[in-house]
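Reminder: ligand-aware prediction takes two inputs, not one.
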Amino acid sequence: MAVTYQAPDYGTYKMIYNDPHRTIEPLEKEIAIVDEALQVLMVQGIIPHRNYDHAKLLAHRAAVAENFEIPWTAITHRMQRLIWAINAIQRPQVMIAAGVFCGNTFISNAGAAVGPGAVYIAKDLVGIEIKPEEADRARRNVQKLDKARICRIIAEDAIETARDYKGQINLLYLDADGDRGRGKGIYYDILQAAWDKMPKGSVILAHNSGNAASKLEHYLTFVRDAKNCAASVNCLLDIEGLEVTKK
Ligand SMILES: C[S@@+](CC[C@H](N)C(=O)[O-])C[C@H]1O[C@@H](n2cnc3c(N)ncnc32)[C@H](O)[C@@H]1O
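Here is what comes back for the chain with S-adenosylmethionine:
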């Protein structure tokens, strides 16, 4: 069954994609909205609690703003906070992010374990980007925060990386828009390639569950089916949305 958290103003809360660091609402409001979403995730049993270090999130945000070259991004401050908080709470040993473009989405996940926002030590944090020049930029960006070189940015098709990954995957972040006409429907194929490596309780995050819902229909039907996953919540903090699923 589909459970949705929808912020009252999710349709009018809008960022400027090529000005991602601009503040568009008071911090207290951003925190309150994300707290509401985390509360729903907690009630659904996806996360064990909703406590996270607010100062560390802001340290992470400042480091990204200072160090990253971001031509554009659709990751709002609300979404950055939600993704970072889920990682800070879940503390995945292995996190794989598919379709990382310039690395901003990757670091929204990995930033809970590297850089000034780090709150735990991870084993393997992998970002996959099919365009080599974008993978190079993502790697340059990420290495500015990841002094211990925990992160790996790979230029590859995420389906192949997921299929060939050796070991367990604890958190899978999906944001590839597909090439060769595959579009966002590729989320389903990436998840299937990773599925056997994801233990019960692992978490899957899918960006664009709001504005690309029709293209994600096959994927959303799968993760919202209780036969496949324990719980799934569509977090509409903004028009993009994030489907948060526990296997
Ligand atoms: C539109 S971007 C995501 C941007 C992100 N939502 C943001 O707001 O910053 C999607 C990325 O997925 C990449 N991509 C497409 N197909 C892929 C695949 N099969 N494997 C890995 N990356 C892929 C694209 O090259 C592109 O850089």
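The radius of gyration is 16 Å. The chain has a mean pLDDT of 96. We will return to this case in the review session.
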